Amino acid sequence: MWNKKKIRFTDKKHSRQGIISSGLGGAALLLFAASVAAAYIRSGQAGRIIAVTGFLAMLCACAGLYYGIMGYREEGTYRLFLRLGCGLNFLLLAGFVSIYILGW
User: Residue 61: is its pLDDT beyond 90?
Assistant: First the structure.
């Protein structure tokens, strides 16, 4: 009759490296979106500042993926932020590689 939720008491915490990985992925996504938008507005003639912004986004994505992979070594932690961070950073790096290969 009653739909009671089961409550679990654990000593697990979210992985600190997973949170850092997700934060770096979010920063990389914002930098990537800003650089692509600026390049689109200027018809591909954005200049060095936008190139530096894209390069910083790629570095953030690499660092985020590194922290995400290193976070899987921690035991007794939740894996939500690790999975989010690794997935987001991997997709961003795949986007950078595809842009480089296609020559956008």
Answer: yes
Tell me the C-alpha distance between 65 and 88, whole Å: 9
Contact, 25 vs 61, CB < 8 A?
A: yes
At 75-100, the pLDDT tens digits run 888 889 999 999 999 999 999 999 88
CA 92 to CA 65: how far, in whole Å? 10
Compute the half-sphere exposure of residue 32: CA atoms within 13 Å on the CB side of its CA.
21
- Please enumerate, as own/partner, the contacts of 26-29 that have beta carbons within 8 Å and a separation of 24 or more: 26/88, 27/57, 27/60, 28/57, 28/58, 28/60, 28/61, 28/64, 28/88, 28/89, 28/92, 29/57, 29/88, 29/92
pTM of the model: 0.82
Residue 3 has a CB neighbour count (10 Å cut-off) of 4
How far apart are alpha carbons 17 and 8 in whole angstroms? 24
